[in-house]
Design brief:
Blueprint: E1 2-10, H1 14-32, E2 35-40, H2 45-51, H3 57-65, E3 68-73, H4 77-80, H5 89-100, E4 104-110, H6 123-126, E5 130-136, E6 146-148, E7 155-157, H7 163-177, E8 183-188, H8 194-207, E9 214-219, H9 220-229, E10 236-239, H10 241-255, E11 262-266, E12 271-275, H11 292-304, H12 308-323, H13 339-352, H14 362-365
Parallel strand pairs: 1-2, 1-3, 3-12, 5-10, 8-9, 8-10
Antiparallel strand pairs: 4-5, 4-11, 6-7, 11-12
Helix pairs in contact: 1-11, 1-13, 7-8, 9-10, 11-12, 12-13
Catalytic activity: (2R,3S)-3-isopropylmalate + NAD(+) = 4-methyl-2-oxopentanoate + CO2 + NADH
Domain Isopropylmalate dehydrogenase-like: 4-346
Cofactor: Mn(2+); Mg(2+)
C-alpha cells in the first residue's frame, strides 16, 4: 500500500513522541513491503512563531492532500499564562478539525495487560476494561459564540448543536457497537441543558434503527463516577465535545498514564491520529516522554486503512516491550529508559518479529547505552 502521511508534530513533547511513531510506521512499511511517504507541516505555537498563524495555509493544504494526518500536541506556557493573547496555539487544532470536517473523535480506553498493576485502581475493578469513547468534535461549547463584557467581568460561552451534528456521530457509534458488544451509553446533562435534551431525543430516535444495540443513558456527573467504580459496564460511550474531553482524560487513570492513550479524529473524507496527552512542557527535550500513545495512534492509522495484521504486529511489539519493563518514567521512575529507548525497542521487535530478549542488551539499556548488542 502507498500512503502519504502529513506529520504535524507541534509543540512541547510532540516532536519527540511523533518521531517514534514515524519510526514505527517506517518499520512496518519495511517489513510488510508498503510505501509510506511522510511530509512535515507546522501547527500550534511553533507555527505562530514562524508564520504568525497557528494553522498556516501550507499546513492545511498539506493535510488536504494527504491520505492521513499524524498529529503530536500543541500549546505553550507563554500563551497559557497570557489571558490577553489574541492568537493561541490551540486555535490551530480547532480550526484544523473544522476545516477538515473531523466531527468524530474515537478514543480507546483499554487496559494493557503488562501495566495493569500500574493503575491506581484495583486489578479486579479494571481487568478487561475495553471502552471506546465517541466524542463529537466540531460542535458544542468549544465552537460556540464567545463573549466578554466591555468591563471584563462577564464571560459567555454558548453551547450549540444541530440535529445533523448529533445524527452523524450517533450513526458511527451505533455501527461500531454492532461490531463489539452491542451496547452504547449516552452521556449528557439533559436535566439542565437544552442541548443535552436535543442529544437525548435524537439518539433515542436513531437507536430504533439498531434494535440489537442496547442504549443506556447516564448524566455526566454519574458517568465520571461509574467509569472509576465499574469501567467494565461500558462498551461504547457516546457524548458531546465537552463531556467527551473530560471522560477520555479520566480514562488515563484507568490505564495508568495519559501517555498510553491514542485517538482518531475522523470525518467523511479526512482522518487524523493523535495521542491525547498535551505538550507536557516540563519534559520537553529531556527524553522522558512516553511515546506509546503516539505509537498506538499510528496503530489506529494502520487499522483505518485495513492493515490489521500490521497493526496487530505493532500491538504485540508494544506488549513485549512493556513485559520487559522497558518503560518511561511515568510508568516506572526507577528504570532509566528514555523516549527513544522505548521507540527503538518496539521498532526492533517489529523488524525481528520476535521476543526482544534475543537481541536487546538489557544491561546496557538500564544505564542508558545502546539497546542493541
Amino acid at each position: 500500500m502507498n500512503l502519504k502521511i502529513a506529520v504535524l508534530s507541534g509543540d512541547g513533547i510532540g516532536p519527540e513522541v511523533i518521531k517514534q511513531a514515524v519510526a514505527v510506521l517506517k518499520a512496518v512499511a519495511e517489513f510488510y513491503n508498503h510505501t509510506f511517504e511522510f511530509e512535515e507541516g507546522l501547527v500550534g505555537a511553533i507555527a505562530i512563531n514562524k508564520t504568525g498563524s497557528p494553522l498556516p495555509e501550507a499546513t492545511l493544504n498539506l493535510c488536504k492532500s494527504a491520505d492521513a494526518i499524524l498529529f503530536g500536541a500543541i500549546g505553550d506556557p507563554k500563551y497559557d499564562n497570557n489571558p490577553d493573547a489574541k492568537v493561541r496555539p490551540e486555535q490551530g487544532l480547532l480550526d484544523l478539525r473544522k476545516e477538515l470536517g473531523l466531527f468524530a473523535n474515537i478514543r480507546p480506553i483499554k487496559v494493557i495487560t503488562p501495566l495493569i498493576d500500574k493503575s491506581p485502581l484495583k486489578r479486579n475493578v479494571i481487568e478487561g476494561t475495553d471502552i471506546l469513547i465517541y466524542r463529537e468534535l466540531t460542535g458544542g461549547i468549544y465552537y460556540g459564540e464567545k463573549k466578554l463584557s466591555e468591563d471584563g467581568t462577564v464571560a459567555t460561552d454558548i453551547c450549540e448543536y444541530s440535529q445533523m451534528e448529533i445524527e452523524r456521530i450517533t450513526h458511527l457509534a451505533f455501527k461500531a457497537a454492532q461490531t463489539r458488544r452491542n451496547k452504547i451509553t449516552l452521556v449528557d446533562k439533559a436535566n439542565v441543558m437544552e442541548s443535552s435534551r436535543l442529544w437525548r431525543r435524537v439518539v433515542k430516535e436513531i437507536a430504533k434503527q439498531y434494535p440489537k444495540v442496547t442504549l443506556n443513558i447516564l448524566y455526566i456527573d454519574n458517568a465520571v463516577k461509574q467509569m472509576i467504580l465499574n469501567p467494565n459496564q461500558f462498551d461504547i460511550i457516546l457524548t458531546d465535545n465537552l463531556f467527551g474531553d473530560v471522560l477520555s482524560d479520566e480514562g488515563s487513570v484507568i490505564v495508568g498514564s495519559i501517555g498510553l492513550l491514542a485517538s482518531a479524529s475522523v470525518g467523511t473524507k479526512y482522518a487524523m491520529f493523535e495521542p491525547i496527552h498535551g505538550t507536557y512542557p516540563q519534559a520537553k527535550g529531556k527524553n522522558i516522554a512516553n511515546p506509546i500513545g503516539a505509537i498506538l495512534s499510528a496503530v489506529m492509522l494502520l487499522d483505518n486503512f485495513g492493515l490489521n495484521e500490521e497493526a496487530n504486529a505493532v500491538r504485540r511489539a508494544i506488549e513485549l516491550t512493556l513485559e520487559h519493563n522497558i518503560v518511561t518514567p511515568d510508568i516506572n521512575v526507577v528504570r532509566n529508559f528514555g523516549t527513544d529507548h522505548v521507540g527503538e525497542t518496539i521498532v526492533s521487535s517489529i523488524l525481528n518479529n520476535e521476543d526482544p530478549n534475543g537481541y536487546i542488551n538489557l544491561e546496557n539499556i538500564s544505564i542508558g547505552k545502546s539497546i542493541f548488542f
